[in-house]
Amino acid sequence: MIDRYAREEMKNIWDLNSKFSYYLKVEIAVCEAYAKNGKFPKKDIEELKKKASFNIKRIGEIEAEVRHDVIAFLTCVNESLGDLAKYMHVGMTSSDVIDTAFALQIQDSGKIILKDLEDTIKSLKALAEKHRNTVCIGRSHGIHAEVMTFGVKICSWVDILERQQENFRHALEQIRVGQISGPVGTYSNISPKIEEITCKYLGLKPAKISTQIIARDYHAYFMQSLALIASVIEQFATEIRHLQRTEVLEVEEGFGKNQKGSSAMPHKKNPVLSENLCGLARVVRANSLVALENIPLWHERDISHSSAERIIFPDSLTLVDFMLNRFNGVVQNLVVHEKNMLKNTEKFGGIVFSQKVLLELVEKGLTREEAYRIVQRNAIDAFENDGDFRVNLLNDEDVTKLLTPVEIDEIFNKEEFLKNINTIYSKILDL
User: Which of 342, 365, 389 is the last residue of a domain?
Assistant: First the structure.
């Protein structure tokens, strides 16, 4: 992942030094498991823990010769151990180290994502509460539909992101598995008891079965959860982009005092953060497809998944971490133009009240078809001629013979659209 999108805490988990540190953690845990099981002397393993070390440059030198990164790692570590090296990697295969260490990296990364989700949800809830009664227009197909509040819109985002939080927790727990089962997973040279003890030391669950590797449906499921988070962030960012259009101008991303929007046009304030989030979401989704393609490996294992995972996992976790933090900043600094929101609800003399008028005419005795025809005629005229829907109704004899001017005014009361807002909030924020 390029540094531009890498936050330090996540970046540190996936750098080369960390990878080998996780490898060493697994190898030492296996040694400790052997000691606890009475197979290795405890004092020797304690000494091994103190002495075991590696040097990235040296690993690179060895790998250039042996063409195997785990062997290069083990050779380097063994150079620091002397006679104690005999306790390292006993009965294990490379995948025992790689997949178990990989699980630890994912768990540590997942903790960061969970914190990001919690912080972002908190910011969204604050925004929703602030705008509980901020009147705005709801849109379907991009067209004005009926009146709602901006807070209700944000409540839907809270609900969506909390659902993704739950999904992610489940996916993270699913992938909390390790393996120490040896070649093709038969425990032919290592006891299942060693796997059990090792995984307990590491805070993992032993895989129920492994075929030299942990099955990749675990990883695909996890990657889908990241793709879902990225996709809903894109959903929110897309909405902000639409609402920031000049013709709408209901919200704007925060704009710094010395910020510049365009190299050519000084007046520009562009939704660049939201656009950036939409672009990054595409990468995470694409990576999730690669994870699906990693599932069908040859026989008990091959390594076609390995090269891809070196890219898609650190990149996707880094990106989702970045996206959540960037989106959280957008939410916290969002400029809400309440006057423009209100003004947009009143376009064309309040044509968004058309259903209210229709229902009232039906209540007065018209068939639904008759009422629809009358209301649509007046609404379309206002829309096409930049007119006033309410004025049209007051001048329509088919309407005025059934509704008085006072009754028509009562229909155009925005509060009628908002009478159940608190019921919605009770399910999202007021629990």
Answer: 342
Residues carrying an active site annotation:
141, 262
Which residue range is the domain that position 327 belongs to? 3-256+265-342
Q: What is the largest CA-CA distance in the chain?
A: 103
Query: What is the residue whose two structure tokens read 């040296």?
Result: 58
What is d(CA 346, CA 153) in angstroms, rounded to the nearest whole number? 19
| Structure confidence at residue 430 (pLDDT) | 67
Cα distance between residue 81 and residue 88, in whole Å: 9
The verdict on residue 431 lying in a domain is no
218 three-class SS: helix
To the nearest 10 degrees (0 to 180), the angle between helices 16-36 and 42-51 is 170
> pLDDT tens for residues 171-201?
999 999 999 999 999 999 999 999 999 999 9
Mean pLDDT for 374-379 is 94
Residues 277 and 353 in one domain: no
167: three-class secondary structure by DSSP: helix
**List of residues 6+ apart from 170 with CB closer than 8 A:** 225
What CATH number is associated with residue 181?
1.20.200.10
pLDDT digits (tens, 9 = 90+) for 122-176: 999 999 999 999 999 999 999 999 999 999 999 999 999 999 999 999 999 999 9
- Could you tell me if 390 and 356 are in contact, meaning their C-beta atoms sit under 8 angstroms apart? no
Q: pTM of the full predicted structure?
A: 0.94
- My answer on whether 361 and 317 are in the same domain is no
Rounded to 5°, angle at Cα 230 from 224 and 233: 145
pLDDT (average), residues 233-258 = 93
Give the residue from 91, 250, 225 showing the smallest Cα distance to 165.
Answer: 225
3 state SS of 266: coil
Give the three-class secondary structure for 313: helix
